[in-house]
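For the sake of transparency, this paper describes our internal protein records without simplification. The tokens are whole numbers drawn from a learned vocabulary of local backbone shapes. One such record is reproduced below, unchanged from the form in which we store it.

. . .
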Amino acid sequence: MKTEEKRQEALGFAMEKTVKLMKQSLNRLLTQHPEVDITIDQWVLINILKKHESLSQQELGDLTFKDAPTITRMIDLLVQKGITSRLSDTKDRRKFKIQLTGAGEKIFTLTEPIVKEFRATAYVSIPDEELILLDIIIQKIFRNLSKNT
């Protein structure tokens, strides 16, 4: 195997391992806060809904890279918990708009500082210039892979 191929393989494994560890660590941290009672995947939906007034299930699936059955299950669970609600779409009654409830807003408010502290811990001792470069590189990888989907 060529040196470049070895480096790419090692880098791919390191990125996959890091992403998995970040998800596991944040999930573990969230379980230490029973007042939030959500997973990292649920947090992603809540965070996206906080940034938008309401979204369709399709839009949520597209933004989270989740397939339709997965996003439906996640939304069902969040509705059961009272965190989100489904409202009929005024333009198309076959569709629903998903939005945060008051309880969902509260969960967001409780969870956001936990996530921010987690990220600060993960990025400690990494200079801003390196984080900016990392972001640029990740965006390039994302664009490269998006071309193939």
In short: The chain has six helices and three strands. The two ends are 28 Å apart (CA to CA).
